[in-house]
Amino acid sequence: MKDLLTDEAGELTIPVVASRAGVHATTVYRRWGSIGELLADVATSRFTGDIVVPDTGTLRGDLERYASDLAKDLCDPDTLALVRATIGIGGEQGAAACRGERQQQLEAILEREQARGHEPPALERTTDAVLAPLYYRAVFTNEPLTSAWAHGLVSHLLPTATATATAAATATTAESRP
């Protein structure tokens, strides 16, 4: 996508998009007004419904599958180019287009866990623990987005009962020392 929609200077512009689409630039300007609005609309369309909200029966399983699927999606060169361009050019509207559907998906996972009778972490905490590192690594680094790494994000959010008990025992021991 990146190479197809940039001019010789590497700029993404409405005239370049219009030329590629075979229409006059005024047609594109009339519909979107700016490249940021165009990219936000493309991102909203692209990111809607492309990742299915998993239902494995457990919050950990749902979040691990979700994080792995999102990591795989963000590894796609076209998806990554769209995310980077949308965030870079689209400002807050572009960022909202990239995260909106993802947060709704996470919210659905957390609501399902609550319907199962459990208390899930808050949406903001889950977003900070799962979405933020995935997008950060994809957009700003060249580090790989592996399933194992994505599962690790979930492990940090949802430590196992054994890890929680160990941490609590360690804290109690530390408090009892003079």
Brief sketch in words of this structure:
This protein is mainly alpha-helical and 178 residues long. Helix content is 73%, strand content 0%.
Q: Indicate the low-confidence ranges by residue numbers.
A: 162-173
Measured on Cα atoms, how large is the radius of gyration? 20 Å
Q: How many helical stretches?
A: 8
How far apart the termini lie comes to 63 Å
What average pLDDT do the residues reach? 79
Helicity range of the residues?
A: over 70%
Beta content: under 5%
Structural class call reads mainly alpha
Order of helices and strands: HHHHHHHH
According to DSSP, the number of beta strands is: 0
Which outline best applies? elongated
Biggest sheet features: none
Keywords:
single chain; 178 residues; mainly alpha; 0% strand
Question: Would you write up a description of this structure?
Answer:
Helix content is 73%, strand content 0%. It has 178 residues and is mainly α. α1 (14-21) crosses α2 (25-32) and α4 (59-75) crosses α7 (147-157). The longest helix has 39 residues, at 77-115. The radius of gyration is 20 Å and the shape is elongated. Residues 162-173 have low confidence and may be disordered.
Topology, pairings included?
Elements: H1 14-21, H2 25-32, H3 35-47, H4 59-75, H5 77-115, H6 123-140, H7 147-157, H8 161-176
Helix pairs in contact: 1-2, 3-5, 4-5, 4-6, 4-7, 5-6, 6-7
